[in-house]
Design a protein that fits this description.
Helices cover 41% and strands 18% of the residues. The radius of gyration is 20 Å and the shape is globular. It is an alpha/beta fold.
Amino acid sequence: MNQDATQKHPFVEDWYARIRQSHPLLIVISGPSGVGKDALLERMRERHVPFHFVVTATSRHPRPGEINGKDYYFVSRERFEEMIAQGELLEHALVYGEYKGVPKEQIRQALESGQDVIMRIDVQGAATIRKIIPQAITVFLATPSEEELRRRLVSRHTESPEKLEQRFSIARGEMLRLPEFDYVVVNRKDHLDEAVDKVLAIVTAEKCRVFPREVHI
């Protein structure tokens, strides 16, 4: 027997109520050093993508061209340890001998305002975020090949040969964690906009979920 068309169905009513609510997303961009995480987010800014871009805190010194408050919050090791002790960070880790961490408050404020939040983080940090915020969308950014990844690391001219080999060894290990992520996007040389478009397509698809992700911090 067909249900009376005038009768309200609890699921349908609940669904209509939910889509009227704002469900901002938390998008995590991760992957080994050299895959282009910073370049991807910078291109999004240039295209005026309406995300809140999380700025990570670090205890390392700025590289040439990096700007405090845009690329990272550069703080002293003492200040970083103070932030850890005061619970100001969503997650933190010691990476290549320097601290990196994600300040909580900027993410919380952005989500509460209804803004989608995007952050770039190393593979170790992404694993921590998945545990703390299982509804986060995790995207693994990769190069088309190991040879291409090595070329990019070498072309940065930021490390000694010993440090470079250490980074490449760690990167190979991080590639093994790819199955832990929701999505993978290949960032091909000279096709950065294509990688950006793929990330935006992922976000669009997530916005169309019947049961939306609800992020709470």
